[in-house]
Predict the structure.
Amino acid sequence: MMHTSSTAGNEAGHEAGHDPLADVSGQSVGRVGRICRSPLGWMLIGIVGVGAVSAVTAAGPGPVPVLGAVAAVVVYWAVMRFVARRPMPEIARHGAVREAMLGGALGLGFILVSALVIAACGGYSLSWAGNGFFSVVASAVAVQAGAAVTEELMFRGLALQALERMFGSRAAVAITALLFGAAHLANPGATAWSGLSIAIEAGAMLGAAFLWRRSIWFVVGLHFAWNATEQLLGIPVSGNTAEGLLSVHVSGSGPLTGGSFGLEASMVTVLIGVALAVSMFVLAHRRGGLLPRRRVAR
């Protein structure tokens, strides 16, 4: 998206010779500035910054992952404000709670329906785990909130929006979906199929959700509720196991249950995820949210 007023202001500043980057040491610094302000430049700078925050805080005790999420939002804001020099309606505070709750409801429903279908087919049986209620819930909220915020800022906030400006919305979703799947290949129990399933059901669906709502808070809510619900049900989250309120007992074929990687490698989840992704693509298209390459700002 473009703001003609800010664009005109920048152009006027350059014509008047007031480009602060060029004023420091001439053309070479100006060239570096233009590279940094390009979609590829601010995407890489932002991913490094948010990724560094995630690496330091993701496995921290207590509320550390939540504090990391807050720090990641600050880094994202700074990169968009001072490097990309673009508006940030996707992280607007107005309506943020509503968007997060709508996304959370979708994520909760997605996982509950998937798990119930698998259980009805004999793949899962659940029992009370007997772990401390408040400690388990607090841990799940902190860890999954940190993961949801940092991953969505990197993949949908930075990568998808930058690639969208270069190649259009459809290609951006396809590329970020594949990258999202590849990023999960190092997880416990991961296989080529689990990476592909994550790309299809998560990467494509979260990308479509962002194009539909154009809100980071919506996809963060969806992502958070998805992962937190899995953890509380005792189901591995992309292969990672943690204490839940329930314990899941798996029986049945890998295509049904997802095997050791968990529910996300189940064909049931993939099919439901595809249905949701297609629905949100249609809604995004109706709202004019799918941008072809020729209309994208460079």
In short: Residues 95-295 form one domain. DSSP finds twelve helices and two strands in the chain. Strands lie at 124-128, 246-250. Confidence is low (pLDDT under 50) at residues 1-27.
